[in-house]
Write a structure and sequence with these properties.
This protein folds into 2 domains: 155 residues, Rossmann fold; 61 residues, no CATH class. It is globular, with a radius of gyration of 17 Å. The strands form 2 sheets. Strands 6-7-8-3-9-10 form a 6-stranded mixed β-sheet, with helices on both faces. Helix 3 packs parallel to helix 6 and helix 7 packs parallel to helix 8. By secondary structure, the chain is α/β, with parallel strands linked by helices.
């Protein structure tokens, strides 16, 4: 579904990504791992057209480099940023409404689906999003993106700052996406959740992919873990 080749990205004169290449297949969960500053978040933003980039990003065979972020989203790519990016003065339900691709076009996800997955959101559906806990805001951001009915969702650090029980819940939630035909590019630092739910793992270092393989292969590769993952 998604094929990235020779991707370079820039912040002004700073050259951040250096020929990044990877792919995400239909119904796959691919983990993008690495230390802070390795280029993981920049990779997500480059795919979504949010930073200056060159190279090739093919989505279902169509090169989308140079397109506006909203155009890319309309093609079926969803993005959940690390900062959660909710609308704090709107209620939970209103936030979900804003995520809908079209009020007239029925997608594979409904309000009931979101509330069934995260009952806490149903309890707080009439509460302003700004007063939710960090975990609740993370749930809301994920659900709002899903309401846009993406075929692939890029999720940046979904477990950052969450309690262990919520981390487990998010992991189960991401596995549920596969049963609905949604592919996932999971950007994570926590090896435990990424290794438990992903089909393949990528490791970034200094703006390039330094490892590509199965979670089991990564578990056995002590050099990659020590050199590029362990703090």
């Amino acid at each position: 579904m998604l094929q990235v080749a020779d991707l370079h990205a820039y912040y002004g004169k700073s050259h951040v990504l250096h020929g990044v290449e990877f792919d995400v297949g239909e119904g796959e969960i691919v983990a993008l791992l690495g230390r802070n500053g390795s280029g993981r978040s920049t990779t997500a933003k480059a795919v979504m057209g949010m930073v200056e980039s060159t190279g090739h990003v093919h989505w279902k065979g169509q090169d989308i480099v140079g397109r506006k972020p909203y155009e890319i989203a309309h093609l079926g790519l969803g993005y959940v940023p690390e900062n959660r990016d909710i609308f704090p003065k709107l209620t939970v339900h209103q936030n979900l409404m804003l995520g809908q691709k079209s009020a007239k076009q029925k997608g594979r996800w409904s309000f009931d689906d979101m509330y069934a997955m995260f009952p806490r959101l149903k309890e707080r559906q009439h509460t302003e999003a700004g007063v939710l806990s960090g975990g609740e805001q993370q749930m809301l951001t994920l659900c709002r993106t899903l309401m846009g009915d993406p075929d692939l969702i890029i999720i940046d650090e979904p477990t950052e700052g969450l309690a262990p029980k919520i981390v487990e819940l998010v992991g189960e939630y991401l596995k549920t996406l596969k049963t609905r035909g949604v592919s996932v590019l999971l950007i994570e630092q926590k090896l435990t959740i990424a290794m438990a739910i992903s089909d393949r793992a990528l490791v970034m270092g200094h703006g390039s992919i330094v490892f590509h393989g199965t979670p089991e292969t990564l578990r056995k590769d002590a050099y990659i873990r020590k050199e590029w993952l362990e703090v």
